Write the structure tokens for this entry.
Amino acid sequence: MAFHVMLIPSMDCPSNCSYCWGVDKESEIMSIEIVEETVRWLKNFREEPVTFTFHGGEPLLAGYDFYKKALPLLSRELSHLNPAFAIQTNLWLMTPQIAELFAEYHIPIGSSLDGPVEINDFQRGSGYYEKTMHGYKIAREKGLQVSFISTFTSHSIKLKEDIFHFFLENNLNLKLHPALPSLRSEDPDEWAISPEEYGELLIYLLDEYLENMGEIEIKNIDHLCKGIFVRRGVVCTYADCVGDTFAIGPDGNIYPCYRFVGMDEYVMGNVRDHPTMDELEKSKSLMSLREWEKLVDEECADCDYIKFCRGGCPYNALTMNKESQKMEIDGVDHQCPAYKMIFKEIMDRANKEFLSPSNMPMFPGMESNNQSKPSKPGVMALMLKR
Ligand code: SF4
Ligand code: SF4
């Protein structure tokens, strides 16, 4: 895994999405002093190139002045780490001034849109779609690259065809995210989709992707196919993220990932103390994730997909212990059945394609008379995609 630092300038967010439980309306905004301390911390921390992702809450709440100071600080003072930048934002607060600044630093934007306006606003709140599209237009006018994540919920999964065609017809690339059971609500499963539903959704999208090759990109499917081909995860979910990814909260606390920000038991240290990797390794937070890695090695040992799955995402393995009322990691990623379904589907198709008559000329002595090419691209085309 590459070295990745997520900066969380605020845990607040101006939108009010029904299935989101990660927002803290009382959150402070990160000060420039925390960015300066981050620079001091990272100066001698590691040698590899680093990617900084601004995440939230909603990171644009920090405002233009924050980025105007933070971006040159990080890129100038840490130039030996070749920093690259990215941001995950709902775009509501995008302005031409911010977009120009982001264009200067070649910052790709990830945003969120759950499909056509009626589906999106049902889940994310009235007016969300219009505000995001307004920001999208500003970002595109300044030449910024924007891709969208669509969260599939127990409601929207029934409308998957409408959502896929919305992205296809509007020339928008798609990344999907399954709504997770809330760790903090009375009815944790209200919006969540089951692993089986998620697996079926991925298989549906694989089919649609192959039908419409060249017209759309579905990032999750690309990542799954590429991971199988190179025999290692190419995104964090399917790779060992522990110890390579860090998130810094608004107050400078260091966590294993943005998804843990605000959970006291997962604080690893604070940037003001400039902790070494050895010191972080001794934190309860990192020790419990190292235990999880051992658990994956045991529980997934016999799985055919372990090399390019690695037990999935440790955050997805968290559950609430009803007795202690504490979050605990008690197994592998709860989406495991979904991963098994889609890995099996891709590998079965790849094996079939590999042994098909049109591929036989690759093997001396096994030439086939049937020289016809497959009528539509198969998964091998996705595996070999650059
Ligand atoms: S905890 Fe999950 S989302 Fe975060 S870096 Fe690890 S795999 Fe990715
Ligand atoms: S598919 Fe399931 S069992 Fe296999 S490596 Fe992934 S999490 Fe482990």
